Amino acid sequence: xxxxxxxxxxxxxxxxxxxxxxxxxxxxxxxxxxxxxxxxxxxxxxxxxxxxxxxxxxxxxxxxxxxxxxxxxxxxxxxxxxxxxxxxxxxxxxxxxxxxxxxxxxxxxxxxxxxxxxxxxxxxxxxxxxxxxxxxxxxxxxxxx
Length: 145
Fold this sequence. Notes:
Order of helices and strands: EHHEEEHEHEE
Largest sheet: 7 strands, mixed
Number of strands: 7
């Protein structure tokens, strides 16, 4: 059973270990630490072990934006990414949820389509020869407080 919940301070090292296992680039410990400190990280636990996480905030033109979605390869195609993206939707306070992915990342594009995201544009020159596709999902308006 998969449980989605807000990451706690005790989860930081486990999240970083998962990130470093899956992501072969430069370590993102500082970025992950700041996101955890600001309550912007949700984790997916399977049998009480973190198998995925999502980081979302309002860094994209003051709109909610999924900055990072990561699932352990052994737990892909099991609904973990979908559950994490739905958690980001529930956290969204702006009425629109944006995310992005490289043009070469077909699985993420398929996930976005399944979850009702639509293409909203693209950015050239971030990764040479692999444009960044921007997606948006229109959510219910957030009531004024």
